[in-house]
């Protein structure tokens, strides 16, 4: 079994193939059950130009009908699955197809009912019908080459291990500490049995809360370099110790490594995988990373405050307390994630009460950090700290045309519907000439607010980055808020939530949760690599749903948050040189957030700060009209500058997909090996 795809061929398409539809065929042999083939179109930098094209399990011939963009430098065919190493494929043949012929071939795959419904909806009006036809063709194309679905299929292909699949046994560096409330339970016995089945063997110790057992003594008795911390009811797959040892060596032997996990249903069937991000402070506060196998250097556990008696018996409390204590001491920077499922959680697994974890987090936050207090829920919820003084003056910069009716309404809603007392709003209009009558009326309407001002910047064309840099340079707020003019508050405390996370000096920027007016998610953070380069997480998720691992509603670290509502420290804004004016409309916020991350500060998605986003209602598409000629150059510039994080966003597990709308589904194949830990 190989998690890594096997390259069958890689070819450079000739000039006839580029910029046109093609039928690509290749004779294949050795494709067995559970093995699939997929094709990738890449540019000169090796970046994918579209989603993977999955061909399933062809018996003799692989066939792909697709459009090959002019910038395609390589077309590659891969096999992945349990027997992928046995697959062979002949050199491909490219046969150009006309657009009409390709469309008809793809349309044959659409069910008749869909076509009949399309005709009725269009009412035979030519323009709507053609537009809907294009949408249907795109959907049919995606469906024809869509990735496999389902966790069972993923487990069979990428997480079923035989003796030949595992790394060689290294020195016995891992022992296990099992925490349990009492002896003799089925959950505890299942955990101990799973340790006994490890391929390379591993010592263990049990700490029973009922006996008041000393955890420190148990850890010392293990005598291994690493201690795997388990709760009764968390069971190891047979290969866990071998695989964990190899991963610890790959990661440079970090202080703490956190592994992925899943659940077992009452019949023992695996379900609900939790593919985790690289650990971060804000994410850790919610508790969602505290379950599953943690591998901890033994010296970190011995004599540590996390072993205090009130935490004995709860692995989540021991793990969480240890990590938070190290964070306060400035020692958590080298901790890592192991992107493999190394524990299965039984239905009877013991779980720390939410009140225990909330108290632990509350004690931690009382010593410094975000201005929030925990609530005893699972995952841990938060409220704003009562009586906290404002964290500093916020200068909101709102680039606007001041022509669209909704823009004035949104700006007024921010001014009237925000309860943060130290907010000033700077509206900036960038255009060649003076304000027209409509704009003057809007500016006059805003003049009635003591904390609002309108300024004009003479320029031949709009540049979002220049506007923000110009206004930032002439204002003095401690924080700068990048804010679109099509955003309006849902709750008045939205800005207080954002500023509260700035109470931690290690936080550099904070983004908000944005909802479409109908209530679904527009922005829940940005994932690098999603949709080929970057895209919003959780887009179109119903606003009342928590999302994968509750990540749509929990504050957490992300690589990027949208500039539609982004709070940043002025000192950091100036340190990184503001927004890059070479990105006048698109990618400026992505590039800006990534540069903030390079300084060592974190970028936080504050899900508690909720606003509505009437997306693109002022300026329309970033690449409409004359801007269309710049799209490809700016995309390629982003790919070159941020290739590493685009290939492996640390806050998006390599076992999760990169197709928009399916970013929280298992990836086929996983990208393990590309990620930084």
From TrEMBL:
Coiled coil: none
Protein name, as recorded: Glycosyltransferase
Record-linked SUPFAM superfamilies: Nucleotide-diphospho-sugar transferases
Transmembrane residue ranges: none
Pfam families: Glyco_tranf_2_3 (PF13641)
